[in-house]
UniProtKB/TrEMBL annotation:
It comes from Georgenia faecalis. This is 4-hydroxy-3-methylbut-2-enyl diphosphate reductase. Pathway: Isoprenoid biosynthesis; isopentenyl diphosphate biosynthesis via DXP pathway; isopentenyl diphosphate from 1-deoxy-D-xylulose 5-phosphate: step 6/6; Isoprenoid biosynthesis; dimethylallyl diphosphate biosynthesis; dimethylallyl diphosphate from (2E)-4-hydroxy-3-methylbutenyl diphosphate: step 1/1. Catalyzes the conversion of 1-hydroxy-2-methyl-2-(E)-butenyl 4-diphosphate (HMBPP) into a mixture of isopentenyl diphosphate (IPP) and dimethylallyl diphosphate (DMAPP). Acts in the terminal step of the DOXP/MEP pathway for isoprenoid precursor biosynthesis. Gene3D superfamilies: 3.40.50.11270, 4-hydroxy-3-methylbut-2-enyl diphosphate reductase, catalytic domain. Its EC number is 1.17.7.4. Its cofactor is [4Fe-4S] cluster. It catalyses: isopentenyl diphosphate + 2 oxidized [2Fe-2S]-[ferredoxin] + H2O = (2E)-4-hydroxy-3-methylbut-2-enyl diphosphate + 2 reduced [2Fe-2S]-[ferredoxin] + 2 H(+); dimethylallyl diphosphate + 2 oxidized [2Fe-2S]-[ferredoxin] + H2O = (2E)-4-hydroxy-3-methylbut-2-enyl diphosphate + 2 reduced [2Fe-2S]-[ferredoxin] + 2 H(+). [4Fe-4S] cluster binds at residues 54, 138, 236. Dimethylallyl diphosphate binds at residues 83, 116, 166, 264-266, 309. Residues 353-375 are annotated as: Disordered.
């Protein structure tokens, strides 16, 4: 195979559009009324906060954007950088090429590993193809990988609570496949077999439903009383925060609309959490165009939230669309304030510094203060 320089197409790189990073992780306050709303008295939107981008997603998207700007197109990305259709399509338009496997990347090219992480085998494949890699794995996923390596080294059986086929689970399991078995749900607990019931630990995919994960753990502990917990919580702060916010607003809503893609585990979970927490109905949409007016016909209170891989622009579009459907008042329901930010991958940061570019990520300063009214 012919070697392709990593910056071979830099001269024809498309002009960049507005950044998908930064302002989506730290969005400005939402106006108290929807833009151009055909308001009907008493109809309101309860807007969950926190919502949307987590720090790991923001970092991964920013890494692709900065790589495109610095090295030029094409930049290859193994798997979807994050599980959001709009983000992937937008980055594709800007010169990113998404591939399923490392062997689809030309020898010598530059590739970004997605926020979900990869196994050691994928790193080895990239090295064998002389690829320049940018590892955009979320640091919280990396933490789970390190836990897997540690406990495999201590010869534990590791029960990884997660979904078979999800990139994050594949990456974590690849760290120690002979020690790790995946448990998809509480219903699979009775089929788990371990070598030594006294040396068992559970880890989890970071984007799961907190409640379902804890139910799986409860049932595992009934079978294996010596089951150990991970050293720290594996379900990421953002997943938990978004679920808590939905639990707070759902009981007061006729309908909850979750913005997020179908392959986003945390977005799908938010629909389930809304229904379990008392919402009259709940729907997931990729964009505002997917909202069926019949969903909100007669609804007085509509909850809105978004998964951890969703840029804020898509949420604003949903608010605008609801305004067109007669729901004009907006109240933010805040259960936590997030200010976590992760640095760019080390080698990308170093290249930007050498070129005199600004590798820092001062997105926190874009957040504006807001007053939260009680629901």
């Amino acid at each position: 195979m012919t070697t392709v320089p990593a910056n071979a197409s830099a001269a024809v790189a498309p002009a960049p559009g507005p950044s998908l990073a930064g302002s989506s992780a730290f969005p400005d306050a939402v106006p108290a009324r929807t833009p151009g709303a055909l308001a009907q008295p008493g109809r309101r939107i309860l807007l969950a906060a926190p919502r949307g981008y987590c720090a790991g997603v923001d970092r991964a998207v920013d890494a692709v954007e900065k790589a495109l700007a610095h090295y030029g197109a094409p930049i290859y990305v193994r798997k979807e950088i994050v599980h959001n259709k709009f983000v992937v399509e937008t980055l594709t338009e800007r010169g990113a090429i998404f591939v399923d496997e490392t062997d689809e990347v030309p020898v010598g090219a530059r590739v970004v590993f997605s926020a979900h992480g990869v196994s050691p085998a994928v790193h080895a494949q990239a090295a064998a193809r002389d690829l320049s890699t940018i590892d955009a794995t979320c640091p919280l996923v990396t933490k789970v990988h390190k836990e897997a390596v540690r406990f495999a080294g201590e010869d534990f059986d590791i029960l990884l609570i997660g979904h078979d086929g999800h990139e994050e689970v594949e990456g974590t399991q690849g760290e120690a496949p002979e020690h790790i078995q995946v448990v998809n749900s509480p219903d699979e607990v009775d089929r788990v077999v371990v070598r030594d019931p006294e040396k068992v630990i559970w880890l989890s995919q970071t984007t799961l439903s907190v409640d379902e994960t804890m139910e799986t753990v409860r049932r595992l502990r009934e079978r294996f009383p010596a089951l150990q917990d991970p050293p720290s919580d594996d379900i990421c702060y953002a997943t938990q925060n978004r679920q808590v916010a939905v639990k707070r607003l759902a009981p007061g809503t006729d309908v909850v609309i979750v913005v997020g893609s179908a392959n986003s585990s945390n977005s799908v979970r938010l629909v389930e959490v809304a229904l379990e927490s008392g919402a009259g109905a709940a729907y997931r949409v990729d964009t505002a165009a997917e909202i069926d007016p019949a969903w909100v016909d007669g609804a007085m209170t509509v909850g809105v939230t978004s998964g951890a891989s969703v840029p804020e622009i898509l949420v604003r579009d949903v608010i605008t669309r609801l305004g067109e459907l007669g729901i004009g008042e907006v109240e933010e329901v805040r259960t936590a304030t997030e200010d976590i930010m992760f640095s760019l991958p080390k080698n990308l940061r170093a290249d930007l510094k050498r070129a005199g570019a600004q590798p820092d990520r001062p997105h926190r300063g874009r957040r504006t203060a807001l007053t939260v009214e009680p629901v």
